[in-house]
Amino acid sequence: MVHYKLTYFDNRGLAEAIRLIFKYANVDFEDRRITFAEWAKIKPTTPTGKVPLLEFDENYLVESAAICRYLARKHGLAGKDDLEEAKVDAIVDQNKDFFAQALPWLTAKFGFEKGDEAELKKTKLIPQSEIYLPLYQKYLKESGSGFLVKSGLTFADFVVSEFLITLRVEAPEVLEKYPDLQQYIDRVKAVPQLKEYYATRSDAFNKRIFN
Amino acid sequence: MADIKLVYFDVRGIGEPARLILKYAKVKFTDERIDWEQWPTIKPKTKNGKLPYLEYDGRTIIESYAIDRFLARKYNLAGKDEFEAALVDSIADIQKDFYNSTLPWLFVARGYVDGNPEDLKKEHVDEPCKTYFPIFSNYLKESKSGFMVSSGLTWVDFVITEFFTTLIQFHPNTFDKYPDLKEYLDRVRKVPELKDYYSKRPNVY
What we know:
The structure holds 2 protein chains of 2 kinds. Helix content of chain A is 57%, strand content 9%. By secondary structure, chain A is α+β, with helices and mostly antiparallel strands. In chain A, helix 1 packs parallel to helix 3 and helix 6 (155-170) crosses helix 8. Chain A is globular. By secondary structure, chain B is α+β, with helices and mostly antiparallel strands. Chain B has 2 domains: 4-77, 3-Layer(aba) Sandwich (Glutaredoxin), CATH 3.40.30.10; 82-189, Glutathione S-transferase Yfyf (Class Pi), Chain A, domain 2. A 4-stranded mixed β-sheet of chain B has the order 2-1-3-4, covered by helices on one side. The two termini of chain B are 32 Å apart. The A-B interface holds A 47-49, 59, 61-67, 69-70, 73-74, 82-83, 85-87, 89-90, 93-94, 96, 100, 131, 135 and B 48-49, 56, 59, 61-67, 69-70, 73-74, 82-83, 85-87, 89-90, 92-94, 96, 100, 131, 135, 138. Chain B: It catalyses: RX + glutathione = an S-substituted glutathione + a halide anion + H(+).
């Protein structure tokens, strides 16, 4: 049996979708969670200076989407055929664009970058959410499955719902106009294989990583 | 035989890797190029207000990497096994981070946004190159194949070298300190299935 080690900060962040795939598939993994102080020491020893990092056998993988896709394909979470896989990839890349636009606001809010949180929310988060949230609504409506693509749950649902959860925690008024997206989050959290995991996991940002 | 149409602007940009995959595989496709003037009427008809999109047997795929990966898998350009496919995906995402970090400079340099590109060069070209070039060099060293992964040419080699081409166009000395990366770019350009296409293609924009 393969021994997987996932290294990331002790937060949901970009690694949570990976953890959800492992939990959904009931696959054991070493969930290594580090603080910023530990990161300063570990960073120069990592292959690309970034986390999440997945190590297994003699291999390593970086980049959250690549790791998700690799694991998802093994566990029926990547889409049912080549076209659906491409659709899943497209949604994950769109979320990455959305996340990249929102990131200056988010890092200002969490306190690891300088920035005027209110200003960035107004100029970045809000306009971008008005582009991307309706797109997610459209995908849900088109799929008819309750998830982002027709065949059902895929890793795109983990990636997107985790970011929507962050918005719900850090800027609740943004999601207020999208009750169907709120229901979508709850639907992902109610997936039988994951209900218990979600129930014991915090959605809030863990500030103790700054220690 | 599949009915394939790629729609993008008349530039290399993020659509060129898909063209390269199809040319490499000698697959017939419609290479539809949209003028800037046409774009406002076409934009609302697209799935996400953006290009490129691919029409494949009547179904539409958006997002350049999703298109690249979908096509690459059909023509043996996605890596020899699932692990290599994941490695290709990782390197492509690293490239995307690199590309995104240069965008504030690139948009000014291309004239989409007002500003002086020289003011942005240090933070948005020099620093990212210093961060990312060693990572690419390292993957080349690990693969030993002359391409990013050990089994040889994959779609990520097209994505990276197209962006390297853009960097060199603006700053010819980009790879002076990275001869391995300059050799890598030349190597991809000499791939037999594509030599002819590259030599006839206007390498500007």
